[in-house]
C-alpha cells in the first residue's frame, strides 16, 4: 500500500504562529527555502521528512501534532453532509474536500453546522403539529449533539482534566482510589451511604448525603464516587473548561459538565501514565486491564481511545458503542476511520454480531473503501438492573486500530494480517460508500450513476456504475 503523503499546511502555520516566528525565520530553522515553506503552508507540497525531523530536533515538538486526524474527521463529516439528497449530484471531488479541511477548517465546520441546522429544521417541519405553539421551539443543534461534537473535535482528550485526575490518583496510592474518594468527600463533610435504590447515585446538597446503589457493580460504585469528587473538588477547573467551549445553551453546558466529571472519574480510575504503561505491557488485554484497575470492560475500552496526550500518545484507537437497533450511542476515533454522525454503523462491521455471542470477544480484520486496513474487536456489555424484573440495557462496544499496530495487540495473535482475502469490506454510511456490490447496501451511493434493468435482478435491484 502506498504511503500517504502528509499535507499539514494549516498545522504548520499554527505551529509557526505559536512560536512567534516569521516565515523567513521559520524556514531557516527548518533548513528549507522560504518558497518551499510557503508551498508547504499552502498545501501545494507535502511536509517532507527532513522538515518533520527538524520540528522534533529544533523545537522539541511532538510531530504527531501534524497528523491528519482532525482533517479526516472534517472530510468524513462533510462527505456525510453532502450525501444528503438535497445536494443531488453536487458532491465535490474528495481532493477538494481534503483541501478545504486542511486550508479552511473553520469554513468546513461552518458548513457542517449549517447542514445540521437544516436537518433539524426539516425534522421539525415533519412534525409541525408538535412544534406549533411551543415556546421553546428553536433551530439549533441539540444540546446532546453539541456536547458530542465538543469531545469529538477535542480528540476525546481533555488535557487539564486528565492531569488533574492523574494528580488525584497519585495521592491515592496508600488507600486506593476508592479510599481516596471517600476521604476527599469526608473532608468536605459528606457522608456516603450504600442503599437499595434504583438510581446509581443520589446526592443531597442540603444534608450533604451521598447515596450509592447496592445494586450496582463495585466498579460502578467507585466510578460514581469519583464523579462526585470531580463535581465538588474540581468545579473551578470544569467551569473554566466549559467557558472555553462556549456552548450555545445552558442545557449543553450542564450535559458537558457531567461529561467532564465522567472524564475525570475515568482518568482517576485509570491514570494516564500508569494505564498507558500497563496497556503496553499487557498488549492491550482488556480483561487484564479491567482486573488491574478495577474498571469495567467498557470503561477500559473507552479509556484506551483517549490516550492522545502530546508527547506520550498511545495507539490511535477508535471506540464506539451501539444499541440493539444499531444506533451509535458513543463514538470516538483517533484513527482515519470515522463514524456516521446520523444513523447507525456499517452492518458488515462485527460490532453488530456481538449481541449473538454474549460474554465473548469477536475479532475482525476489516478494510475501508480508502484501502486502510483495521483490526476490530467487539463485545456485548449488557447491564442488568440489579433486581428481578428490572430492565436490562443491552449494548455492544467496538474497539480497533489500524492493522500496522497489530503486533502490539494480544487480539491479533493467530490472525493472518498479511492475507488480503482475510479482510472484510466495511464502510461508514451507504450514501458515501463507494463499494458497488455490497450485499447489505440500503441506499445507492450518491456519487455514482445507476443502471436499472427490468430483465435482470442481482443482489441489488440496480447496478452501480
Brief overview:
By secondary structure, the chain is α+β, with helices and mostly antiparallel strands. Helix 5 packs parallel to helix 7 and helix 11 runs parallel beside helix 12.
Describe the fold and architecture.
- The protein has about 475 residues and is of the alpha+beta class.
- Helices cover about 40% and strands about 10% of the residues.
- The chain has 17 helices and eleven strands.
- The strands form three sheets. The protein has a six-stranded mixed beta sheet. Strands 1-3-2 form a three-stranded mixed beta sheet, with helices on one face.
- β6 and β7 form a beta hairpin.
- The longest helix has 22 residues, at about 105-125.
- It is globular.
- The model is unreliable at about 130-135 (pLDDT under 50).
- Belongs to the short-chain fatty acyl-CoA assimilation regulator (ScfR) family.
Amino acid at each position: 500500500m502506498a504511503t500517504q503523503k502528509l499535507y499539514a499546511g494549516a498545522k504548520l502555520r499554527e505551529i509557526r504562529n505559536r512560536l512567534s516566528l516569521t516565515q523567513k525565520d521559520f524556514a531557516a530553522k527548518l533548513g528549507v527555502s522560504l518558497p518551499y515553506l510557503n508551498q508547504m503552508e499552502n498545501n501545494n507540497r507535502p511536509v517532507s521528512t527532513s522538515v518533520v525531523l527538524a520540528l522534533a530536533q529544533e523545537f522539541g515538538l511532538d510531530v504527531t501534532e501534524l497528523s491528519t486526524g482532525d482533517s479526516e474527521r472534517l472530510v468524513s463529516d462533510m462527505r456525510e453532509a453532502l450525501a444528503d439528497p438535497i445536494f443531488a449530484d453536487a458532491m465535490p471531488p474528495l481532493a477538494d474536500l481534503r483541501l478545504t479541511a486542511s486550508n479552511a477548517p473553520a469554513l468546513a465546520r461552518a458548513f457542517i453546522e449549517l447542514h445540521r441546522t437544516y436537518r433539524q429544521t426539516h425534522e421539525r417541519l415533519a412534525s409541525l403539529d408538535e412544534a406549533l405553539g411551543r415556546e421553546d421551539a428553536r433551530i439549533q443543534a441539540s444540546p446532546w449533539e453539541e456536547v458530542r461534537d465538543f469531545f469529538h473535535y477535542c480528540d476525546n482528550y481533555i488535557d487539564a482534566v486528565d492531569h488533574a485526575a492523574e494528580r488525584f490518583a497519585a495521592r491515592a496510592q496508600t488507600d486506593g482510589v476508592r479510599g481516596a474518594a471517600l476521604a476527599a468527600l469526608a473532608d468536605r463533610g459528606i457522608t456516603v451511604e450504600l442503599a437499595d435504590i434504583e438510581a446509581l447515585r443520589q446526592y443531597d446538597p442540603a444534608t450533604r448525603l451521598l447515596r450509592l446503589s447496592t445494586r450496582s457493580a463495585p466498579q460502578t460504585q467507585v466510578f460514581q464516587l469519583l464523579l462526585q469528587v470531580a463535581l465538588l473538588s474540581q468545579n473551578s477547573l470544569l467551569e473554566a473548561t466549559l467557558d472555553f467551549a462556549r456552548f450555545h445553551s445552558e442545557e449543553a453546558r450542564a450535559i458537558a459538565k457531567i461529561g467532564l466529571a465522567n472524564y475525570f472519574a475515568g482518568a482517576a480510575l485509570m491514570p494516564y501514565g500508569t494505564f498507558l504503561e500497563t496497556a503496553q505491557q499487557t498488549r492491550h488485554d482488556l480483561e487484564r486491564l479491567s482486573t488491574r484497575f478495577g474498571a469495567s470492560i467498557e470503561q477500559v475500552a473507552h479509556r484506551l481511545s483517549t490516550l492522545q496526550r502530546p508527547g506520550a500518545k498511545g495507539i490511535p484507537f477508535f471506540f464506539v458503542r451501539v444499541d440493539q437497533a444499531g444506533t451509535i450511542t458513543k463514538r470516538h476515533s483517533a484513527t482515519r476511520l470515522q463514524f456516521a454522525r446520523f444513523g447507525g454503523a456499517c452492518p458488515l462491521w462485527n460490532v453488530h454480531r456481538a449481541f449473538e455471542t454474549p460474554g465473548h470477544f469477536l475479532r475482525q480484520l476489516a478494510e475501508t473503501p480508502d484501502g486502510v486496513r483495521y483490526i476490530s474487536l467487539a463485545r456485548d456489555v449488557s447491564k442488568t438492573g440489579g433486581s428481578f424484573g428490572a430492565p436490562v440495557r443491552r449494548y455492544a462496544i467496538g474497539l480497533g486500530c489500524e492493522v500496522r499496530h497489530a503486533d502490539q495487540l494480544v487480539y491479533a495473535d493467530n490472525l493472518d494480517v498479511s492475507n488480503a482475502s482475510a479482510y472484510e469490506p466495511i464502510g461508514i454510511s451507504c450514501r458515501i460508500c463507494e463499494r458497488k456490490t455490497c450485499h447489505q447496501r440500503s441506499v445507492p451511493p450518491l456519487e455514482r450513476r445507476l443502471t436499472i434493468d427490468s430483465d435482470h435482478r442481482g443482489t441489488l435491484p440496480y447496478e452501480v456504475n
